[in-house]
Write a structure and sequence with these properties.
Rossmann fold; 2 domains; single chain; seven-stranded parallel β-sheet
Length: 260
């Protein structure tokens, strides 16, 4: 799939690796001038260096002053910022426990990065887009934000918040030519999910087939499959898609995939 993103400028958060890097790469391959951002400066510079004309920036989505500086820099260098992909996010590895055992500091860390950080970046970028009467905002949620899983209360709450925050943004910004949509990935093969499920030494490797039994194709998705969904939502032709939630999950949330 090819989309004409010539003369478009994009900012992708959490672009050092995984889904974020795949999205940033695909936007660059389709003509956008892409700013790869991440808290991991060394890795994001490595990622951006692979694509001619792309630029790496250190950015913590929770640091309002730093985000403002990055956005000001992009607009100063390019004159505009057209596409925002809010991908930066975290989950918990060790605290897979019920809510009565879930640590408050871990709750606050996840919600601050996954939801408040997305709000901070969106708030700052939206003003720039409004001035030009054009923009594409794509927020990365999760199937866990649509159908919660056990032992992930903070992640489920934050990603559900992303869904309704995006819908609110769609209502508020749509009259200014800006669309805001959600992509909700299912179980995707990344370094993180290898540590949990898909690596031979993954924490829950023994139960991975039980997880995949809920997914009709019987496999995890790829980062490229998420990136292509995002690419569609950034396209000029997607101008009437606003406030949508696109689950890219192999059918996970469509219903039960096995008989009882």
């Amino acid at each position: 799939m090819k989309v004409d993103l010539q003369n478009r400028v994009a900012l992708v958060t959490g672009a050092a690796r995984g889904i974020g890097q795949a999205i940033a790469d695909l936007l660059a391959d389709n003509g956008a001038r892409v700013y790869y951002s991440d808290v991991d400066g060394a890795e994001v510079r490595r990622a951006a260096a692979r694509k001619t004309g792309s630029i790496a920036v250190d950015m913590d989505v929770c640091d309002e002053q730093q985000v403002q500086g990055v956005v000001d820099r992009i607009v100063g260098e390019q004159g505009h910022l057209d596409i925002l992909i809010n991908n930066a996010g975290v989950n918990t590895m060790q605290h897979r426990v019920p809510i009565d055992q879930f640590p408050l500091d871990e709750w606050e860390r996840i919600v601050r990065i996954d939801l408040t950080g997305l709000y901070i970046v969106s708030r700052i970028v939206a003003g720039r887009m409004r001035a030009r009467k054009w923009g594409r905002i794509v927020n990365i949620s999760s199937v866990v934000g649509l159908v919660p899983l056990r032992l992930q209360c903070a992640f489920a709450a934050a990603k559900a918040g992303v869904v309704n925050l995006t819908k609110a943004m769609a209502l508020e910004l749509g009259m200014d030519g800006i669309t805001a949509n959600v992509v909700a990935p299912g179980s995707i093969l990344t370094e993180g999910t290898k540590k949990l499920f898909y690596g031979d030494d993954g924490m829950f490797h023994q139960s991975v087939q039980q997880l995949l039994a809920h997914v009709p194709p019987g496999r995890p998705g790829t980062v490229e499959e998420i990136a292509y969904a995002v690419l569609f939502l950034t396209a000029p032709e997607a101008s009437y898609v606003n406030g949508a939630v696109l689950a890219v999950d192999g059918g996970w949330t469509a219903g039960y995939a096995r008989e009882f």
